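Supplementary Note 3. Input sequence used for the single-chain structure prediction.
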Amino acid sequence: MNVMLPVTSVVSHGVDMVDCARLGEMIKRHGSRFVDRVFTRHEQDYCMNRKRQIEHLAGRFAAKEAVLKVLGTGWRNGIRWTDIEVRNEPSGQPVVRLSGECRRLADQLGLGRILISISHIETHAIASAIGTSV
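The predicted structure, written as discrete structure tokens, is reproduced below.
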């Protein structure tokens, strides 16, 4: 049986690494004001229910930065941190949900999907994002 898969091409790639201690210091210094500005309620709930909370937050922070590199924008033109949300499939696979200005930019670039991968250890978190067309 032959299965026809949609033709997909890579449009762009982004990668980012975060120092967990540095992110932890930002959270200590600015508290919930910082956390609420950067992470959606869903992201906060997911990370705060984990054993190594800062590592998980750092992974999501790195993923957001990697996605911005895919979009080719940086933090400008009305982009909000929460325009990029990282969720997890039941399998554990992280997925990106875009809204606001990030969604508009992704549509403008013809991105059908952004694939992400996140990894972290006690000291650092890294994320890679690949924007594909469908």
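The two ends are 23 Å apart (CA to CA). The first strand starts at residue 9 and ends at 19.
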